[in-house]
Amino acid sequence: MIKTKLLFFLFLFTCFVSFAQADKHSFSIQQCLDYAHKNNVQVKNALLNIQIQEQINRGVTAAALPTFSGVVGTTDYIDIPTSLIPGQIFGQPAGSYIPVKFGTKYTANTGLQLQQTLFDGQVFVGLQARATSMDYQKKNVEVTEESIKVNIYKIYYQLVVSKTQIDLLNTNIQRMEKLKHDANEMYKNGFAEKLDVDKVDVQLVNLKTEKYKALNQINIGYLGLKTLIGMPVKDSLVLSDAITYDQIKNDFTNDTTFQYSDRKDFQYLGLVKKLDEYNVKRYKLSYLPTLSLNANYSKQAQRNTFDFLNKGDWYTTSYFGVNLSVPIFNGFAKDAKVKQSKIELRQVENQIDGLKLSIDNEVEQAKLNFRTAIRTLDYQKQNMQLAETVYNQTKKKFEIGTGSNTEITAAETDLKTAETNYINAMYDAIIAKIDYLKAIGKL
């Protein structure tokens, strides 16, 4: 018994903690986009790529900066190196040698080394390409955000429209409940059959079932939107923006003039081309000589006992030099790299030409779809209003006993169909509008 109570309280505590940790959000479409910018995994990784590029650029910059290194070393000669001295020096026969050991058992050295690139064509091109590389990564963030932004817009406004769908269903349920009440009263007074009441009851149950299914789909839509913007599923999300018939029709124009440069993907591909141009330039400059400077300052000591920390002589050596490296022949490797980079550049140019054709096609299709969606929305709105008028007139006839249950059932079915078609037309118009704005780079 005690164990059962303990488990029960632990369950309540867990539920309380889970509830307490859940946050509540009321977001406009812009707030959803801002939240996704900070929390969507793809966007976060794209932003991290910018930080990675910053470090890569630091590495490129380092190639043009001087490098300093310190050297400290000691050597213990187990066998002192032997040198051969010609024997003639000491009166020995010509061609003979006398082995002599020079040096001490221990040596030590310490010093500083400096290296500096004075000219390297590839390094200088790398320095020039740093800004473009950063722009490339930033543009990649924008392209990633735009693809996510399109889906956020579509899901957000579809969920907003779903409020209208639920409102229409609630109105139909209220209307059907009123009709059921009237049919019951007419049945009690002998002006209608029990079958008429049952038919209305069936329609009412169907409407409530449809509303339940619609609410379930809406909940699934909210889960999808939360996942897309990077929000925990347990958090509560309320959409604060509304969408109206007039708002959907806004932003459409028959003027399809636009700039390719308005498109993020076109800008992105332009930066790819610029980086490939730097690549061609880099390999071409690899044919030029490289010039570098190096310098050294060191101290060396020699001892027969390991006592370098005591008094004794340390001998200084210092120098600086300039090295010129002239490439002569490397098996045509540089030529292959130059030609490969030129081919890759032509591929990007072909991709740009292909993207222009794709954009032209996308804009035309989006324009046609949007125009058709708006006209369909207009027709379905008029049809829904007409169906509602027919239903109201049929209901009045039924109430005064001049209309049949079959007529009012048909009118109710037509009204419900018209409302469903109107909601679907709103969905289609929203999708068409978003696709159109994305196609012309105005989303």
Structure, explained:
The chain is α+β, with helices and mostly antiparallel strands. The protein folds into two domains: 319 residues, Up-down Bundle (Outer membrane efflux proteins (OEP)); 85 residues. It is built from ten helices and eight strands. It has a four-stranded antiparallel beta sheet with strand order 2-5-7-8. The protein is elongated. The N terminus is likely disordered.
CATH fold-level label of the largest domain = Outer membrane efflux proteins (OEP)
What is the percent of helical residues?
A: 55-70%
Poorly predicted parts: 1-20
Rounded average pLDDT: 87
Give the radius of gyration: 41 Å
Order of helices and strands: HEHHEEEEHHHEHHEEHH
The CATH class designation of the largest domain is Mainly Alpha
CATH superfamily of the largest domain: Outer membrane efflux proteins (OEP)
Question: Per DSSP, what share of the residues sits in E-state strands of 2 or more residues?
Answer: 15-25%
CATH architecture of the largest domain: Up-down Bundle
Major β-sheet strand ordering: 2-5-7-8
Structure annotation, total helices: 10
Number of domains: 2
Shape: elongated
> Major sheet: size, sense and barrel closure?
4 strands, antiparallel
Structural class: alpha+beta
The N- and C-terminal alpha carbons lie at a distance of: 62 Å
What is the topology?
Layout: H1 2-21, E1 24-27, H2 29-39, H3 41-62, E2 67-76, E3 82-86, E4 97-101, E5 106-119, H4 121-128, H5 130-188, H6 194-229, E6 236-239, H7 245-249, H8 264-285, E7 290-303, E8 315-325, H9 333-399, H10 405-439
Parallel strand pairs: 1-6
Antiparallel strand pairs: 2-5, 3-4, 5-7, 7-8
Helix pairs in contact: 2-5, 3-5, 4-8, 5-6, 5-8, 5-10, 8-9, 9-10
